[in-house]
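Lecture notes, unit on protein representations.

Consider one protein chain, 92 amino acids long.
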Amino acid sequence: MNALLLLAALSSQITFNTTQQGDVYTIIPEVTLTQSCLCRVQILSLREGSSGQSQTKQEKTLSLPANQPIALTKLSLNISPGRSGENSCYCF
């Protein structure tokens, strides 16, 4: 994991903006760093329902400027009743 993003996580500079419209949940991790950084961002979603398991992964490399809140990526999930899941954001 990139040390700058690890420091951001430890100092509460990573936030997760979430919205819901019906069964669709949108998750946008946002980070503010004190120094510019070139980082790879990965969001992984694992879900389980009556028909089995699914995995969704988004990944990209970003040049993050210092002292500005930056939305890293956006993940939209259709989560209907009876489904469970886990979502993770990895930054390195």
